[in-house]
Specification:
The complex is a heterodimer of chains A (about 450) and B (about 170). By secondary structure, chain A is α+β, with helices and mostly antiparallel strands. Chain A is built from 15 helices and 22 strands. Chain A has a nine-stranded antiparallel β-sheet with strand order 13-19-18-17-16-15-14-22-21, with helices on both faces. Chain A is globular and about 75 Å long. The two termini of chain A are about 30 Å apart. Chain B is an alpha+beta fold and about 170 residues long. Chain B has a single domain, classed as Nuclear Transport Factor 2, Chain: A (Roll). Chain B has four helices and seven strands; from the N terminus they run αααββαβββββ. In chain B, strands 2-1-6-5-4-3 form a six-stranded mixed β-sheet. In chain B, a hairpin with a 4-residue loop joins strand 3 and strand 4. The model of chain B has no long low-confidence stretch (mean pLDDT about 95). Classes of the chains: A alpha+beta (about 450), B alpha+beta (about 170). The interface between A and B is large, with 47 and 36 residues. Strand 13 of chain A pairs parallel with strand 7 of chain B.
């Protein structure tokens, strides 16, 4: 089957169902790397990872290995991690600080700006070697921008601007940053990297799915219910026990939460958490201290506003999922049509009590840890879905729950009829189709 | 000093510690999880760090960090009929080696024992092999030992890992 023209792709995405090949066909996956991950604004990381000139971290943008650096002018650069000579990766570290990147193969040396600084045995390139070398800096992502400290890049020269792309979703980033008494975040606590044999869409769909916890997580709900009740003062285990139990909330709770979607495939869950549901909240002296610091900075009214935002997971389509209450961010890296790895980062709220970061770590361990009670069952189910979807019958995946009941909101977002509406999946595929069939924007110069 | 300990570690002591660690491994490999849990003290911790040379489990994430409450919850989950990641249940072989006494705290009646672990895991259609450096802090109890702390440093802790639903 040939998918190169828009009509072919459009047939695969219907109002209440999508074709199984979207999860299983390697040709579609290749097209996604070009047109979706190769065009959309992707969240790469946070400025706290590259505070000073020369600081860098490496990551992926779809298929492209990239280095995120800060150059001598303190400008953020997203460099393609491939020597312009014979193609070796010029940086193989996950993070660090470097004055230059020296290719291991023939010693070509690049500045943090990507400019080619030095080529050994350059006489072999003739009298105008210097001129030739000037055009052989590392390739770059053509568009790089920050929003509230988060670093985004796009491999397409043209397309919607970052703010247009984020749309109403920018408030989820605001929510995360506003919760820091000093108004800034810091990546800390290590990076979980968990992999599964399944399509990348499975994890992105799962994070807004309020029906799956009762089934996928029933064993950890049971384990949590049988554990001693969390108390005051809060112990290390209490955060885990609360979260395991919360996944067993009755159907009515999930029906009554909100699920919103926005252009380009984004979405988020809201009206879900309260500070009493997952932490001991105001009974906790640490939380009281934290709240007092916010009040000292912003006053009572603004503090109430900040803590009154009740968003849970936000999906920045196609590759990011994050949440403010426990300061977690997950970046999804598709490796193949049936292989995905997810990197999970934790954030410190600058100016917050130290204990709050310990709570973040405890939460990450229970939900995102590679041996977590919760995540391991998700990963197992993704793999079962992937194996099932390779079947040719039936051809379609049914995503109709709540169809027809969407509610338009004043800010342009659309809300599901209830919290368990599959509006977020239908909207993700609408975003998918828009990227995959839209006019092809110019690519970065090779 | 390590050398002193090495001189003092009588073969009978090492043999006893080896027998204890082998016993622990056997309990895991034969799914006797209640008996395994009974090896731990009430204040025990069980830890798989995320990073090499990780100093603590509170400021940095861990692949797994359980106190007694969570370790019991983990074993409880393993037996649940809808514990998907454990259905079908993994078969394992824990191969313990290089057992040696690392330090002794006579006042607390505790020993720290180092060992290596090679673990083979099998679930249908997939076999995996893990390697780790282990440290057990053992507390004297009746005529044997109890585990006050167990730390397992996987050689690939920082790698991109598929889910882990087994005990190390």
């Amino acid at each position: 089957m040939e998918f190169s023209n828009a009509e072919d792709l459009t047939r695969l995405v219907q109002p209440d169902r999508v074709h199984h090949s979207l999860y299983t066909d390697p040709a579609i996956f290749e097209l996604e790397m070009d047109r979706l991950f190769g065009r959309a604004w992707l969240l790469l990381g946070h400025e706290s990872q590259v505070r000073k000139t020369g600081d860098f971290f490496t990551t992926r943008m779809g298929r492209e290995p990239v280095i995120v650096t800060r150059d001598a002018d303190a400008t953020l650069q997203v460099l393609i991690n491939r020597c312009t000579h014979r193609g070796a990766m010029v940086c193989h570290e996950a993070r660090g600080s470097a004055k230059q990147f020296v290719c291991a193969y023939h010693g070509w040396t690049f500045e943090p700006s990507g400019a080619l600084r030095y080529v050994p045995v350059s006489q072999g390139y003739g009298a105008d070697a210097a001129q030739k070398m000037a055009g052989l800096g590392l390739a770059k992502a053509p568009r790089v921008e920050s929003y509230r400290g988060f670093i985004f890049a796009s491999l397409a020269v043209t397309g919607p601007g970052l703010r247009e792309f984020l749309g109403p979703l920018h408030r989820s980033f605001d929510d995360l940053v506003d919760r820091a008494p000093e108004g800034d975040l810091e990546v800390a606590g290590g990076v979980f990297k968990h992999a599964y044999n399944g399509n990348w869409k499975l994890v992105i769909e799962n994070h807004l799915d309020g029906v799956h916890p009762a089934f996928v997580h029933s064993s950890s709900v049971f384990a949590g219910r049988e554990a001693p009740d969390p108390g005051v003062p809060e112990k290390y285990a209490d955060i885990a026990v609360r979260q395991m139990r919360q996944n067993g909330a009755p159907e009515q709770v999930w029906e009554n939460i909100g699920v919103w979607t926005a252009d380009w495939g984004h979405g988020f869950l809201g009206d879900y958490h309260s500070d009493s549901r997952l932490v001991v909240g105001l009974d906790n002296p640490v939380f009281a201290d934290y709240r007092a610091r916010l009040v000292a900075r912003h006053g009572e009214v603004r503090t109430k506003e900040i803590l009154g935002v009740t968003r849970w997971n936000t999906i920045l389509y196609p590759g990011t999922s994050f949440m403010s209450q426990f300061r977690q961010l997950r970046i999804v890296h598709p490796l193949a049509v049936d292989r995905t790895v997810v990197y999970t980062y934790c954030f410190k709220l600058k100016g917050a009590p130290e204990q709050m970061f310990r709570d973040t770590v405890a939460f990450a361990n229970v939900v995102n840890g590679t041996a977590s009670w919760v995540l391991t069952d998700d990963l197992e189910v993704y793999e079962r879905v992937q194996r099932g979807l390779t079947a040719k019958m039936p051809e379609w995946v049914y995503v109709a729950r709540g169809a027809g009941g969407d509610i338009a909101e004043p800010d342009g977002s659309r809300r599901g009829a209830t919290g368990t509406s599959e509006i977020f999946i239908r909207n993700q595929f609408a975003g998918w189709l828009r990227h995959m069939t839209g006019d092809i924007p110019a690519k970065a110069e090779a | 000093m390590p050398n002193t300990i090495l001189r003092q570690a009588a073969p009978a002591v090492i043999a006893g510690l080896t027998q204890f660690l082998n016993h622990e491994a056997r309990l895991l490999d034969t799914s006797r999880f209640d008996d395994w849990l009974a090896l731990f003290t009430e204040d025990a911790t069980y830890w798989l760090p995320l990073e090499q040379n990780q100093r603590d489990p509170f400021e940095t994430c861990s692949i797994l960090y359980d106190d007694r409450t969570l370790l019991e919850a983990r074993v409880r989950q393993y037996r649940h009929p809808r514990a998907h990641a454990r259905t079908p249940f993994a078969r394992t072989v824990h191969q313990v080696g290089n057992v040696m006494l690392l330090s002794e705290d006579a006042a607390r009646g505790e020993l720290t024992v180092g060992s290596t672990l090679v673990l083979v895991e099998y679930r249908p259609e997939r076999q995996r092999v893990f390697g780790a450096l282990c440290e057990h802090r053992l507390r004297a109890a009746a005529d044997s030992w109890q585990i006050a702390a167990k730390r397992v440093d996987l050689v690939n802790a920082e790698a991109e890992l598929d889910g882990l639903a087994i005990l190390f």
